[in-house]
């Protein structure tokens, strides 16, 4: 079987396969079937493909030349389920976004400047825009540097991502608080539909490990009940077979952060937090009357917030102000991530005549990934 040109890259705290759209089938059904074989799904170990047996390492970025002169590249994110024959485009991924700019330069879609290069990116899943800036000394991408992010060993070059203001309402239900499935929550969308839930309202401390939370079947059922009821209220329709909205549990900070989080994506508990998920949490902390009141500890000055998560923290700048109708709107969202090229070459997919015989079940989710 012929191979497909592919670049495997770590983006933020995720890992994914990056492709040019021109190297994949144009038909979405054929494309998704090919990607399932490339990633090794459905199989809990993804032993016959590139996937890493976890939603955070079973991701795909498809990059193409846009039809908009104000945008440099289009980025389509696809979440490939691990043990299910499912590929979803219902959300973005802010972590893989960190690798899109470098990939565009590597593939010659965007010329590099001598020093730093900025790439304007349209996230096809939602139409949202972002600009990624990263070092390109001598016109080549430099992945080495001193930036450190929690959940990733070592250091790398910083990729500064600034998100354009979204036209979607920050409060998709129009209210700062909702009573959903017997729990008071705040529904936000700052690039990722997210439901904020005080951990104490679920009888939790919010400091439990992801493994402890995932093992709690009663908690899983309760969270899924909240998610299914929140979906239609947030304008997402029936979310039974989707990975949004995400659910973030909030607890008082442990160290010098603004809040401690445990995020479900939507059924696995994230070992850190996705970029867009953190953007939603950060904006939610600044909304008057949200469930974050009495839980979060906000800094006296500036937009920067430190979001604590199971393996460290994520610093994000999020400013919220009153819109013309008095409702909260996001003024600015920016974050520093890192990315690293792991390999660039040809991937050989499993033959489509040797599909797994096991009955798959849907699973998986992106870190941070919105759906509108």
TrEMBL record:
UniProt KW keywords: Isomerase
Pfam families: PrpF
Region of interest called Disordered, as start-end residue ranges on this chain: 347-372
Signal peptide: none
Keyword Isomerase: yes
Low complexity bias locations: 354-372
Keyword Isomerase: yes
InterPro entries cross-referenced by the UniProt entry: OMA_tautomer-like (IPR047687), PrpF-like (IPR007400)
GO molecular function: isomerase activity
Assigned protein family: Belongs to the PrpF family.
Descriptive protein name: 4-oxalomesaconate tautomerase
């Amino acid at each position: 079987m012929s191979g497909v040109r592919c670049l495997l890259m770590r983006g933020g705290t995720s890992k994914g396969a990056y492709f040019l759209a021109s190297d994949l089938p144009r038909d979405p059904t054929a494309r998704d079937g090919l990607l399932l074989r490339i990633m090794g799904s459905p199989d809990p170990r993804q032993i016959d493909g590139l996937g890493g047996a976890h939603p955070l390492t079973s991701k795909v970025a498809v990059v193409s030349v846009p039809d908009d002169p104000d945008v440099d590249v289009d980025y389509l994110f696809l979440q490939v389920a691990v043990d299910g024959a499912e590929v979803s485009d219902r959300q973005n991924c802010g972590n893989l976004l960190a690798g899109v700019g470098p990939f565009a330069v590597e593939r010659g879609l965007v010329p590099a400047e001598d020093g730093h290069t900025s790439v304007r990116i349209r996230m096809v899943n939602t139409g949202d825009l972002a600009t990624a800036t990263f070092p390109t000394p001598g016109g080549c991408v430099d992945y080495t540097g001193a930036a450190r992010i929690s959940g990733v060993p070592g250091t790398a070059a910083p990729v500064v991502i600034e998100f354009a203001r979204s036209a979607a309402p920050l409060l998709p239900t129009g209210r700062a608080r909702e009573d959903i499935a017997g729990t008071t929550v705040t529904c936000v969308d700052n690039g990722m539909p997210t439901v904020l839930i005080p951990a104490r309202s679920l009888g939790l401390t919010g400091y439990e490990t992801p493994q402890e939370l995932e093992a709690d079947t009663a908690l899983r059922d309760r969270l899924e009940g909240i998610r299914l009821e929140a979906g239609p209220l947030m304008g997402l329709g029936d979310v039974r077979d989707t990975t949004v909205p995400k659910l973030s549990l909030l607890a008082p900070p442990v160290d010098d952060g603004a809040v401690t989080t445990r995020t479900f994506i939507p059924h696995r508990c994230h070992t850190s937090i996705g970029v867009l998920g953190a953007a939603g949490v950060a904006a939610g902390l600044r909304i008057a009357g949200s469930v974050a009141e009495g839980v979060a500890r906000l800094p006296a000055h500036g937009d920067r917030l430190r979001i604590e998560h199971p393996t460290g923290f994520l610093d994000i700048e999020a400013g919220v102000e009153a819109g013309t109708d008095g409702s909260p709107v996001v003024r600015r969202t920016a974050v520093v991530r890192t990315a690293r090229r792991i390999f660039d070459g040809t991937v050989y997919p499993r033959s489509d005549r040797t599909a797994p015989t096991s009955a798959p079940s849907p699973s998986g989710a992106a870190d941070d990934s919105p759906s509108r």
